[in-house]
Structure formats: structure tokens, C-alpha cells
Design a protein that fits this description.
Organism: Sphingorhabdus lacus
Keywords: Endonuclease, Hydrolase, Nuclease
Number of domains: 1
Shape: globular
InterPro entries: HNH (IPR002711), HNH_nuc (IPR003615)
Bound molecules: zinc ion
GO molecular function, one term: nucleic acid binding
Protein name: HNH endonuclease
Strand content: 5-15%
Order of helices and strands: HEEHEEHHH
Amino acid sequence: MTAAKKTKPSERPENAARPCLTEMPYRAVVFAELNQHNVPLYFVGGSSAPKCKAEKALKVAFGIHGGSCFYCKKAILEADLSIDHVEPTSNEGGKAIQNLLIAHRKCNQKKAALPIEAFHPDAGKEWLTALLAQVEDRLKRIDTSK
Ligand SMILES: [Zn+2]
């Protein structure tokens, strides 16, 4: 790809590499760029931390902005923090920011490998709805006029 090539909005990586959840700490994680392996790197709003991958960025964002467990909705102390991969991480895609939630270690262990909607229907509905809204927004960016 050459620098002169014009990128359509639908092709910009930030459209595919942003959190689907809009509350803190998720919305503090902002896409910066793709690294040499095409892995998204993020800035964390309110932080001077260097660009980093999604899981690290979410931990940094939690450290600054705090947050509550996506499952039980109670506050998390830093020592109890875990990053839940909603879908199992069998590939790099599983580490995408959309797939990460903050949860208590105990809540994360209870969920184990269950589908989110089976483990916690309310949390599953909330996450799937946010993901669907993001997918619908991306679908709208596809230029079908040609
Ligand atoms: Zn919890």
C-alpha cells in the first residue's frame, strides 16, 4: 500500500478497533495505530502511558478511571481485577478491544468458557447489544453506491 492511496472511511482501522462499550474505563481506550504486525495499539485518555495493545490499555484505563465488574456490577479493587475475554482467545482477534471486559477474578473464573449469555443473561444482552450497535454502524459505512 502506498501513502498516496486514499483510504475510504470504511477501511480505516479505527472503525474496526474501538471499544463497543461507552462507559469508563472502556471509552478511555482510543485507537492509535496498527503495529508492524497489524495489531491495534491504543492510547489511554487521561494517561501519558505509551501506546499499547488492547488488554494492557484496558488495565491502564482501569488504573486511572476505575470501573466496576461487568457481571456483578460491583466496584473492583485493583488486586481483584481481571480482564475477561468474552469469546475465547484462540487467535489474535480474541484479544481485540471489543472482546475484553473488566471483571472480578472470581466472576471471571465462574464464567470460565461459558458463552456470556449463558453465564449472565443480563450482561450478555448488554454486551451483545453494544457489539451489534457497533456492527450496524460499520455496516452503514459501506459505500454501496458503486
Ligand atoms: Zn464481579
